[in-house]
Amino acid sequence: MNTVAKALALVISLLFAGTVLRPAATAAGDEPPEEAKADAGDGPQTDTIKTSEGDLDVTFIGHGTLMFTFNKKVIHIDPWLKLSDYAKLPKADIILVTHEHRDHLDPAAIKRLRKKSTDIIANPAAARTIKGAAAMKNGETKTVQGISIEAVPAYNQLHTRGHNLPWHPKGSGNGYVLTFGDKRVYVAGDTENTPEMKALKKIYCAFLPMNVPYTMTPEMVADAAEAMKPVILYPYHYGKTDPQKLVELLKDSGIDVRVRNMR
């Protein structure tokens, strides 16, 4: 190697000494890789709701994904590996799937959470793809491991993907009302402020989606909340929508609007 080449090699080695090559950052607005999401922060937040039969712990995993823990029963709702690798969360006694879209029905997440005794409840389209799942149609009620579960219609009335095709057609997807002691908890799934939703009674806690064009605007959520009058309202699955808009709309309603990280 000649003198010039040796000098050039020395300069390059000094420049890169101690440097660790890392993947390029994602473009602005891109989601981080699934691995980064699973490991980020100190884990999901949990709220506790008192019931006549013990505490209900609500764990906010993100998007449309929740975990309920009640009397040693663990209920996972629409589990999705993109949001958590579930390594630090308990396996499911019950899994609820609202509908068959990929951000709500993740076979790999279900496989990771399932044990031999797990009951899986899903809308009919999702149940056909999950071995051993029990289908629930709109309007049906089941008691599963001592917990009453009601399937509420979840659908679009206004927003479509074009050609008059709704993002979520009527008669397919479910929301669920679960009864824990004296508390009725409503997880709406992907839906707008339908007549069936607004007719619900004695809902203590409601989870209502708020991401246009797929579900509701803040105004639609406020309209539904003022009709059913839950004690506690969690906007969830809200994407880029600012949840503070909902807080402002309901500031004089008497409803306790609680914002958690459910983008």
List keywords for this structure.
263 residues; alpha/beta; Metallo-beta-lactamase, Chain A; 7-stranded mixed β-sheet; 14 strands; 20% helix
Short description:
This protein is an alpha/beta fold and 263 residues long.
What this model shows, in words?
- It contains seven helices and 14 strands.
- It has one domain: Ribonuclease Z/Hydroxyacylglutathione hydrolase-like (Metallo-beta-lactamase, Chain A, 4-Layer Sandwich), CATH 3.60.15.10.
- It is α/β, with parallel strands linked by helices and 263 residues long.
- The termini are far apart.
Category by helix and strand content: alpha/beta
Order of helices and strands: HHEEEEEHEHEEEEEHEHEHE
What is the makeup of the main sheet?
7 strands, mixed
Q: Would you tell me which CATH topology applies?
A: Metallo-beta-lactamase, Chain A
Q: Quick one: overall form?
A: globular
CATH class: Alpha Beta
Give the percentage of residues in beta strands: 25-35%
CATH architecture name: 4-Layer Sandwich
Number of helices: 7
Count structural domains: 1
Low-pLDDT stretches are 3-41
Distance between the termini: 58 Å
The helix content is: 10-25%
The spatial strand order of the largest sheet comes to: 1-2-3-4-5-6-7
